[in-house]
Specification:
The mean pLDDT is 92. The longest helix has 26 residues, at 52-77. The protein is an alpha+beta fold. Helix content is 48%, strand content 7%. The chain has two domains: 13-281, Hypothetical protein af1432 (Orthogonal Bundle); 289-355, no CATH class. Strands 1, 2, 3, 4, 5 and 6 form a six-stranded antiparallel beta sheet that branches. A hairpin with a 2-residue loop joins strand 3 and strand 4. It has twelve helices and six strands.
Length: 358
């Protein structure tokens, strides 16, 4: 938007945020009022292997949700109506899939993807937030509000010019400022939907704030930031590090998690949320490749909620040869342990094969 109309829109967007900020700190805290979803989470089964049909169904569900999110974004940009009930259906699908097979869903999320960064990133943040809500012992109402925040977190980027959003070289100061304005644009687009939770515009506005006050758009600190915005900011940071960007390839999940932990130590992110992220994906994230101490290569197939650095691994390659069956190496194996995270080895195929019966 430009000129007088653009200025009026900006004032209107910021008035929404200012009104919610005036409610004070109690409105920024969340309370679990119903049964935590954690109680519906099945016990982890490291030995679980899925049929090829189950794997295909999970991938199709993930891709379908991603396509729906992309469609919602385009419709919102173009001023077409999107109903909250449509987003609710995607949230319900993701929650059901996460409760049924969290490890597989997160493994699918960790696979490299082509396509526009904004949509891939939003799907990652959405997936992570659904799983973080479960591990943070949120009830269904809180999970839904967090999922809305994850969905709308970067929708305002749709109002940023494509040449800026997809630029492969360093942004000029004015371009960087326009990127930061996306938080305000996100509030504008979200506010058009009927029935959104009262505090949602403020949560969306604050998802790029940092606990130390060095985030944007307002440099809010610690308790000045809404609890749900703190959760989204962790998911957003981790996803931004692992997703392919216009100007670089996505980073290794292990290195991204290491960086998020480091930033939490610098008081950028809420430690409790980062701990839940670790519990969800582990230090060697589920679905990623590792080299073992015996020189073999495997895929992380199940997180270890007790020891984050020692998840379960299915060995796929040994002596450069793909194995007919993928043996499971657990945290208590007497001789073989994870040596390091690595890129997918030559001839290994898809990491998702490790989740299937052979």
């Amino acid at each position: 938007d430009g000129g007088a109309e653009g200025l009026l829109n900006l004032v209107r967007d910021l008035n929404i945020v200012n009104t919610l900020e005036e409610l004070g700190e109690p409105a920024l805290r969340v309370k679990v009022k119903d049964t935590p979803l954690m109680k519906r989470l099945p016990k982890v089964n490291p030995e679980k292997q899925r049929s090829k049909e189950e794997l295909v169904q999970a991938i199709e569900l993930y891709n379908s949700c991603a396509e729906k999110i992309q469609g919602f974004f385009i419709r919102m940009r173009d001023g077409q109506e999107v109903k909250l009930s449509e987003i609710d259906m995607v949230i319900a699908d993701m929650l059901k899939a996460s409760l049924r097979d969290r490890a597989l869903l997160l493994a699918i999320m960790h696979q490299p993807r082509n396509g526009e960064y904004l949509f891939t990133h939003t799907m990652n943040v959405f997936t992570l937030c659904v799983n973080l809500a479960i591990l943070l012992e949120f009830d269904e109402a809180l999970l839904k509000e967090l999922a809305y925040a994850a969905f709308f977190n970067d929708v305002g980027m749709m109002l940023v010019d494509d040449t800026i959003r997809n630029k492969t070289s360093k942004l000029e100061r004015q371009e960087a400022s326009e990127i930061r304005n996306h938080t305000t644009y996100s509030v504008r687009l979200a506010a058009r939907l009927k029935g959104i939770p009262k505090m949602l515009p403020l949560i969306i506005f604050q998802t790029h704030e940092k606990l130390d006050g060095k985030g944007y758009p307002r440099g809010k600190k610690g308790d000045e930031i809404h609890d749900l915005a703190k959760v989204v900011s962790v998911a957003d940071a981790y996803s931004a590090m692992i997703a392919n960007r216009p100007y670089r390839r996505g980073g290794q999940p292990y290195k991204a998690l290491e960086e998020v932990i480091h930033l939490a130590g610098q008081k950028k992110y809420e430690v409790g949320v980062v701990r839940s992220l670790l519990k969800a994906v582990n230090l060697f994230p589920v679905g990623s490749w590792v080299r073992m101490t015996d020189g073999s290569y495997g895929v992380i197939v199940c997180p270890n909620e007790a020891e984050y650095a020692r998840p379960w691994v299915r060995v796929v390659l040994r002596h450069g040869q793909k194995l007919p069956r993928f043996p499971l190496i657990g945290p208590d194996h007497p001789n073989i342990r994870i040596d390091r995270a690595c890129e997918p080895p030559m001839g290994a195929g898809s990491a998702l094969e490790a989740f299937c019966e052979r």
